[in-house]
Amino acid sequence: MKNARYLLIVLLALVGGVGYGQGTAPTFRYNTAHGAMTLPGRDPAQGGTTVIPTVLVPVRLEFNASPTAVTLDAAGDVRQVLRSPVFSKMTFGAEEPTQYVDAMLRATAGKPSGWHTLLGQPEVRPVTVEVPVGDGYVLSSKRTGTRLGMVDAEYLEREIFKQIPRQDGKLVIVVTRNTAYYTYGDATVCCTWGTHGVDAATGNSFALGSYLGAVPPLVQEHDVQPLTEQLAEWVNDPLHDPLFHLAFRTPLPAGENIVPTWKWPEVPGVSETGCGGNSPATRYTLEDPLNTNNRSDLPSGLAWVGHERGAAWHLADVALMGWYTGGTGPYSFPDAGILKAGAIPCPEFHPPAPGTAQQTLAPAPPSSVAAVPSTGAKNGHELIGYWTGSGPGGTLLRLRDVSPQWDVIIVAFADVNHTAPEGTLKLHVRPGMDLAQMKDDIAWLKSQGKKVLISLGGGGEYFTLAQSASIPNFVNSVTQIVTDYGFDGIDLDFEAPSLVLDPGDADFRHPKTPSVVNLITGLRELREHFGPDFMLTLVPEGTQIPAGYPSYGGQFGTYLPVLWGVRDILSFIDVQDYNTPPLQGLDGEIYQMGSVNYDAAMTELLLRGFAVGGRAGDFFPPLPADKVAVGFLVGPATPKGVSEAMDYLITGKVPAGVTYKLRRPGGYPGMIGAMFWTIDADRNEGYEFSNMVGPQLHGYASAPGAK
Which of 85, 194, 420, 453 is a Cys-bridge partner for 100, taking CB atoms 3.0 to 4.6 Å apart? Predict the structure, then answer.
């Protein structure tokens, strides 16, 4: 489970300044109430036209690791990019025709008379980049015949600038075809259509964006919209160093434009709520309030459609400086009417200083909504949830106070003990939690017929068992935790980058990666120690199981050898249908999180089995339905959506609008049910999931073999 714990580092302001020397494109500085900020070009006070020389780099991406090599080549899109408002002139409002970047800068600066910043006609320099296993994959649509590439943005940036040396005085514009990107080397931190800023290795000023030709399914943007989005963000922060932010280093590179985190505006077409700029991806790609790109799905932004010489172009609507700095407007471009007021800052969280005394947490106040009582005998269908103890307003939700609808309660987490030898885990709970009380609550829940597990790992943790000599550390530390607290078993939540397959490790039946091999050995030793009643569950991310269908290796499919190695002692597996990029179903279509289509397609990969890495002769066999559940995230998921997914998968009842067809039309009556992150969030939202989905699961006919 990933935690949104990163702050927004983005954008600008303006008022008079001097030249500035980072990056290869010309920039200038302005002094504002927020400090000195940087923009491309030269100071409006100097007037005149600045022409920024450009290098246009169409990229040929070669995915050779698949059974059939696939190429996505942007060379054929160069003509359209040159014809577009990136380089050609278009009319924006009442202004004389000009390029997109120039029109945006003029809107920002109050349209100074005679002041322009133009992109020069480019030198075209094609490059070819091979995308290895673990750094990307290709999805295809059987229905439309179109393809969508998914690539590690960091990897691509580095490979491109190995071939494009420093271009003094120039802006490098990199174009890929039908390609989306993930960041931090983690495909669950997805998705964006590109990135921008200053390349760390060469110092080149650059913007990287996709040209969307024949648009694959699920893609809502078109032609140069992604490229103009990245150019607009480059205008707003031209000295951004994306690779620098991957290391979370401080202080920030000199000259970056920084404003506080902000609240998502209420704008038609933008569904985000809460604070913008606080997701992992935004530190790499930045983020605009009119472009939703901080979820694990394909980004979609508002488009302004312009017409020039008989062609229609989709251009990104973006926020201008005045929005970030609380100026007088305009606040958006090209459509000046979308944002009607400046940004509202979000309060920043400051954790207690190290060594600060922690007081015992106050109990959570009673909920205004009552939990539905649990009735009836066990039927083999279960409601599974993770508990962290997080009540509203910093209070403690005790284990004994969770809804009676929960059948399996998984405590989060036992994580890495960084002061102990490799493989050692420790129980990690909220500061101020009464551990003796927690032990009593676990015993009480078990007396009520509930199962209580401890989850190992969690998002953001790096766990490894690279040395076989470390297996006893793992086994002994987990044994102590389970024994001390009376847990019924363990849940495995080792996410990327904890589990990454070594190069050449291509056979899930006979893994070679030491950390994977040693982990399987440790899990089997734990089962042998505790006996047959010991529960073992797996909660992989989308990259770790279903992504093994289009690509196997690196971070993709990493739970397949683990699942194979413990299949005979597995209690159940519940794949996270939220920490996931777009993936492909058995029907040959592309799906992304947040729909019954995705839940059904990804779950059937486990229920029916699939060709690993698309290789017809390498089949991962199906799992019994009574070992399969589906994982949901409270917040993005809706009770209605979860309810429909359960009905479809368990009974075969097809919800309205669902296009994915189950291979077994009657569904899978033996399937367990649903898992949620988290029990706490469900309770704090008035039991909206447990009160609906719990009785639904418990009301089904008994699953075959249910006890």
Answer: 85
What is the distance, to the nearest Å, from the Cα of residue 560 to the centroid of all Cα atoms in its chain? 21
Radius of gyration of the chain measured on its C-alpha atoms: 26
Contact 38, 107 (CB under 8 A): no
- CA-angle at 572, arms to 571 and 577, nearest 5°: 160
Number of C-beta neighbours around residue 356 at 10 A:
9
What CA–CA distance (Å, rounded) separates 390 from 685? 12
Give pLDDT, residue 509.
98
Enter the tokens of residue 682: 């469900």
What's the count of helices (H) and strands (E) in the chain, helices before strands? 15, 37
Residue 4 confidence (pLDDT): 30
Residues in the chain where the model's pLDDT stays below 50: 2-21, 247-250, 294, 357
Q: Residue 491 forms beta bridges with which residues? A: 455, 537
Count of other CB atoms within 10 angstroms of residue 672: 26
DSSP conformation letters of 502-524: PTT---TTS---HHHHHHHHHHH
CA dihedral 502, 506, 508, 514 (to 10 degrees): -20
Distance CA 684, CA 123 (A): 57
Strand partners, 175: 58, 209
Asked if 231 contacts 100 with a C-beta cutoff of 8 angstroms, the reply is: yes
Q: What pLDDT is recorded for position 19?
A: 34
In which residue are the tokens 């750094």 written? 135
**Closest to 115 measured CA to CA, from 42, 177, 62:** 42
Token code pair at residue 148: 């969508």
- pLDDT score for 75: 98
Residues facing residue 123 across a β-bridge: 55
Inter-CA distances, 264 with 5, 123, 174, 453, Å? 17, 39, 29, 37
Say if CB 296 and CB 581 are below 8 A apart. yes
Residues assigned a catalytic role: 495
pLDDT in tens, 299-319: 788 788 888 777 899 999 999
Helix axes 690-699, 639-651, angle to 10 degrees: 10
Tell me how far CA of residue 668 lies from CA of 144, 625, 645, 660, 675, in angstroms: 30, 6, 12, 15, 17
Q: How far is CA 552 from CA 374, 526, 612, 618, in A?
A: 42, 28, 6, 11
CB atoms within 10 A of CB 443: 14
| Omega prior to 248 cis, within 30 of 0 | no
CB 167 within 8 A of CB 50: no
The pair phi, psi for residue 190, each rounded to 5°, is: -145, 150
pLDDT (0 to 100) of residue 212: 96
Residue 642: what are its φ and ψ, rounded to 5°? -65, -45
